[in-house]
Design brief:
The complex is a heterodimer. Chain A is α/β, with parallel strands linked by helices. Chain A is built from eight helices and 13 strands. In chain A, the strands form three sheets. Chain A has a five-stranded parallel sheet, with helices on both faces. A five-stranded antiparallel sheet of chain A has the order 9-8-7-6-13, with helices on one face. Chain A has a three-stranded antiparallel sheet with strand order 10-12-11. Chain A is globular, with a radius of gyration of 18 Å. Chain B is of the alpha+beta class. In chain B, the strands form two sheets. Chain B has a five-stranded mixed sheet. In chain B, a hairpin with a 3-residue loop joins β6 and β7. The chains are: A alpha/beta, B alpha+beta. Chains A and B meet through α1 and α8 of A and α3, α4 and α6 of B.
């Protein structure tokens, strides 16, 4: 058994009440955490001591999170980044794709959720290569998703999906092998939790399964994790 | 106002008529300098009056449009200001709530007192409220789905879903849908949002009813509109509160002590607006409340 090295996380936020509390929790959760209070400091720290993962707030003094991300990606630095903002609107999603963040999380969030995502991002990360979230074309077996044209194909046959199912499929394919709770997917299809929100997710999943010919009992693509959520189980690669 | 223009041609027509009738009769010692016949005179007068009327009508219309424009501008400005306020609120609440949640997980592992549990619950509640307010503000601007929606199915589902909720215990929910001569036509829009609006209305009606009461949900078609009514025999809403019930976080006298986010009806209104529909409320204290939702059949007017 090799001694497992703790992943090094750089937490970037100008709100000290957030960084100090979160850092303590992250350290206890098996990470080694450093803190930067603004974008410039973050850039400096990335140069000095490259982290395995960066958690980036967007609105910060001196240099904002988006600018930090842009500069990193410009010099082909593909350190995984979780950006602390929401990606809801179609325009935001298109922008997010260009930005090249690995995942997004909107404030306020449950710290457990952040750790779950950090682990998933680290597991998915392909050293030195752009993440799936920044890929224009996603391929998973017979399934292909063209994010530029916003179309999806199964064995080169275009799938006839509602806009929401398409967004959901995109999210599932960019987060393969990750347990996605209904609440999280609800955020993706932009629904309300109150009073019976998860229904919106279940209908869209059913729509996707119908289109993909996926059997819920013996799934190829989308697996139901009883009382927890869903998981995209087929490996996904970026293409083109 | 715009349709009255043929009326303005009436003087002209009368003038023409006079010209035809009196075409050949000359006026002796004409009052005016020109020696013209009575017919031509009336025709000229008719033309003159028509021109004057048209000018006045045009000015009135123009003024009207000015007012309308100003009013619209004012409306968009207030809506914009409200949206910006909600955005600022969202932004200012986000960071403290994130910090509190992070601090709470640290505390959590050290002790597990009821006080901490309670803080946790309330923090989650606040976080959800912030998220809902944000979504509500977004609802006014973001693109929504435009697919055909079968309201019959959506209504059946909404009623079934509310029926499953504990709040429906000891209350009867009745749904009446037209079948003959034809069922409800489709409306166009976002099925999830419409379901959410209907659930909110039905849930409200049930929540404010006494055990044993019946909540009636009925739908019918009228003049290119699908009309849905949700009626209860609850305590009703005082007249002076009625105009405010659509505002975010508004809680009437009767709603105090009843659980809710204070966003339900604001959400219903926003969803209806985005579908090109209208929602109205009628209520009598001690007798009950009926909310009427009107949605255009088929194509939604795109904003």
């Amino acid at each position: 058994m090799s001694v497992e090295q703790k992943p090094h996380v750089l937490l970037v936020d100008d709100e000290q009440a957030i960084t100090s509390n979160l850092a303590a929790y992250l350290n206890r959760s098996g990470f080694e955490t450093s803190i930067a209070g603004d974008g410039e400091e973050a850039m400096h720290q990335v140069e000095q001591n490259p982290p395995d993962l960066i958690i980036l707030d967007v609105l910060m003094p001196k240099m904002d999170g988006r600018e930090v991300l842009r500069r990193l990606r410009q010099v082909d630095d593909w350190t995984p980044v979780i950006l602390l903002t929401q990606v809801g609107e179609a325009s935001e999603r298109a922008m997010a794709l260009e930005e090249g963040a690995d995942d997004y999380l909107n404030k306020p969030f449950d710290p457990h959720e952040l750790v779950a995502r950090m682990r998933a991002v680290l597991r998915r990360a392909r050293p030195g290569r752009p993440p799936l979230s920044a890929a224009w074309v996603l391929v998973s077996g017979d399934l292909r998703f063209d994010r530029h044209a916003r179309r999806s194909y199964l064995q080169d046959q275009e799938l006839n999906l509602t806009p929401k199912a398409l967004v959901l499929l995109e999210y599932l394919m960019t987060h393969p092998d990750e347990l996605l709770s209904r609440e999280r997917l609800l955020d993706v299809v932009w629904g309300w939790e109150y009073p019976v929100g998860s229904r919106a997710v279940d209908t869209r999943i059913a729509e996707l399964r119908r289109a993909l010919g996926d059997d819920a009992g013996d799934p190829v693509y989308i697996e139901t994790v009883p009382s927890l959520g869903y998981r995209f189980i087929f490996p996904v690669e970026s293409a083109k | 106002m715009k349709r009255i223009w043929p009326l303005l041609l009436l003087p002209l027509g009368l003038g023409l008529l006079f010209k035809i009738i009196f075409g050949q009769s000359w006026i002796e010692n004409s009052v005016i300098f020109l020696r013209i016949d009575l017919g031509t005179l009336s025709l000229l007068l008719g033309i003159l009056i028509s021109i004057v009327l048209f000018t006045m009508w045009g000015m009135l219309l123009w003024q009207d449009r000015q007012y309308e424009g100003e009013f619209l501008q004012y409306q968009t400005k207030t809506a914009e200001e409200r949206r910006q306020f909600l955005q600022r609120l969202d932004h200012e609440l986000k960071n403290p709530l994130t910090a509190i949640q992070a601090a709470l997980v640290n505390l959590d592992e050290e002790s597990n007192q009821t006080a901490i549990k309670s803080i946790k619950t309330q923090t989650l509640r606040l976080s959800r409220l912030v998220a809902d307010l944000r979504k509500l503000a977004e609802l006014e601007t973001r693109l929504i789905e435009h697919s055909p929606v079968n309201l019959t199915e959506v209504l059946q589902e909404a009623v079934a879903l509310v029926q499953e909720q504990p709040v429906s215990a000891e209350r009867t929910l009745s749904l009446s849908l037209p079948q003959a001569p034809w069922p409800l036509p489709n409306v166009e829009g976002d099925e999830d949002l419409l379901l959410l609006a209907l659930i909110n209305l039905i849930n409200n009606a049930v929540k404010f009813s006494q055990p044993g009461a019946t909540v009636e949900v009925r739908a019918f078609e009228d003049a290119e509109m699908v009309i849905v009514e949700v009626a209860d025999t609850g305590p009703g809403i005082p007249e002076e509160e009625l105009p405010h019930v659509w505002q975010e976080l508004y809680r009437g006298q009767g709603a105090r002590g009843v659980q809710g986010s204070g966003l339900g009806l604001a959400l219903v209104r926003a969803i209806t607006d985005r579908h090109g529909g209208q929602v109205t409320i009628r209520s009598r204290v001690q007798q009950g409340t009926v909310v009427t939702l009107k949605l255009p059949v088929g194509e939604v007017t795109k904003l």
